[in-house]
Amino acid sequence: MSAQFNNMKAVADIPALKSKLEQNALNTENIRAEFKQEKHLSILEEVITSTGTFLFKKENKVRWNYIQPFNYLIIINGDKIHINDEGKQKSYDANSSKMFGQINKIVVGTAKGTLFSDPDYITQFKENSNYYEIYLVPKNNKLRDYVNEIYLYIDKKDLTVYKLKMVEKNGDFTLVEFLNKKVNQAVQENEFRIP
Amino acid sequence: MKLSTKLIFVLVYTLQSLYSLAQDPMNIRLFEEGENKVLLKVSGKLLDHNLSGILILKQMSTQEIRAVMTMETGIKVYDVSISQKKMRLLESMPAYKSPLVKNILFKDLALILHYPFTNTQSKDSKEFKRNYEYSKQEEFVYRKAAYRGNKILEYSLKYIDSTGKIIHLRHNFNNIPYQIEYWRIENN
User: Fold this and answer.
1) How many angstroms separate the Cα of B69 from the Cα of each of B60, B91, B109, B158?
2) Residue B61 C-alpha, separation from nearest chain A C-alpha, in angstroms
3) Residue B52: its chain A contacts at CB < 8 A?
4) How far is residue A70's CA from residue A44's CA, in Å, rounded to a whole number?
5) How close does chain A come to B76, measured CA to CA in Å?
6) What would the 3-class secondary structure string for chain B be?
């Protein structure tokens, strides 16, 4: 991780921080952003980079659109997940698969910035002058087969998630950076329409 | 015919032959020259389950290739170590721990890997305890098929570009409800 996350110290007043983040989440109707995703694998010197757009709308609506290296669209609308893989379309019930259910929880919880309040995770809070770091460990061993640790970096300026880091058991990790965030601007309902 | 004319004719013929050999589309390859990895987009279906993501194949040494697949969201699907004669599942999502699914995965990976061959005739080879036949189907399309007796068990159609680089693979498993395709990802 870059130097911007150096000098992290434990947050002194955790209840006050939780209250501030929860209040901010209450006031956040939607978030639109671009994202850059990096996959770091121990077998590769290079990182695998994907880019695209991200849209969240309360309560549980997410549109995650990969543009590079190829088109791939994930729409989460409540309990429904729709995937468009370059024209091949498929819809799922999020509850039909435990894995999709958990991914849904992580994505929506990240977008809201409230994953820390999920009782399925052990949490630690740190901060430096610009960011809060929320460290989460899933309590469920099966979930830890996919994601062993999660780091959420929250920008102190707007209290939105700036970076998400998901670390696997062997140390490989996925880093998602959210860029050009726009909060509470016009969002069309049909952007989350599941065909 | 003058000797000098004959020499020119021989020289031109030799140069043409060498050029033809360099361009021989049968000299097909998965890894680019000087590269030890290839990234493939994956799209497939096992029973009702869709599979998609990115497969990374990396030549770790002359003895080992690693095959790591991740979903688009970055979550790892499997990590397989492939040595000259066998494969080992190092880690995976729970579904791949089933012997049946693991077996399908190993057969699938064996179809991707390409034994180099450079003549226009079919070539038989024994890899991972199975008999495979390599053959040309049409221009820029080659096939690697697993056989038992005269019966094809599964096969990979390998679509190449004019330089012999594999750009697309389409796999078919005759008796198993499993279809999968791979496309080369350039410049990631």
Assistant:
1) 16, 11, 11, 20
2) 12
3) 72, 83, 85
4) 20
5) 7
6) CCHHHHHHHHHHHHHHHHHHHHCCCCCCECCCCCCCEEEEEEEEEECCEEEEEEEEEEECCCCCEEEEEECCCCCEEEEEEECCCCEEEEEECHHHHCHHHHHHHHHHHHHHCCCCCCCCCCEEEEECCEEEEEEEEECCEEEEEEEECCEEEEEEEEEECCCCEEEEEEEEECCCCEEEEEEECCCC
Is the separation of the CB atoms in B75 and B68 below 8 Å? no
Q: Is A11 helix (H, G, I), strand (E, B) or coil?
A: coil
**Model confidence, pTM:** 0.85
| B37 and A CB contact within 8 Å | yes
Q: State the ipTM, two decimals.
A: 0.87
Measured between beta carbons, which residues in chain B are less than 8 angstroms from residue A64?
A: 73
Q: End-to-end distance of chain A based on CA atoms, in angstroms?
A: 39
pLDDT at B21: 34
The type of residue at A57 is K
Q: Which of B58, B73, B74 sits opposite A44 (nearest CB)?
A: B58
pLDDT of residue A3: 76
Chain B CA closest to residue A89: B50
Compute the mean pLDDT over every residue in chain B, rounded to the nearest whole number.
83
Which single residue is written with the structure tokens 């721990």? B97
In chain B, what is the straight-line distance between the N-terminal and C-terminal CA atoms, in Å? 56
Q: What is the dihedral of CA A134, A135, A139, A145, to 10 degrees?
A: 120
| C-alpha span between B147 and B132 (Å, rounded) | 6
Would an 8 Å CB–CB cutoff place B43 in contact with chain A? Answer: yes
Give the amino acid at A137.
Answer: V
Three-state SS across A91-155?
Answer: EEEHHHCHHHHHHHHHHHHHHHCCHHHCCCEEEEEEECCCEEEEEEEECCHHHHCCCCEEEEEEE
Q: What is the pLDDT along chain A (195 residues), one digit of tens a residue?
A: 677 878 899 999 999 999 999 888 889 999 999 999 999 999 999 999 999 999 999 888 999 999 999 999 999 898 888 999 888 888 888 776 666 677 777 877 877 767 888 888 999 999 999 999 999 999 988 888 888 999 999 999 988 889 999 999 999 999 999 999 999 999 999 999 987
Nearest CA in chain B to A68: B188
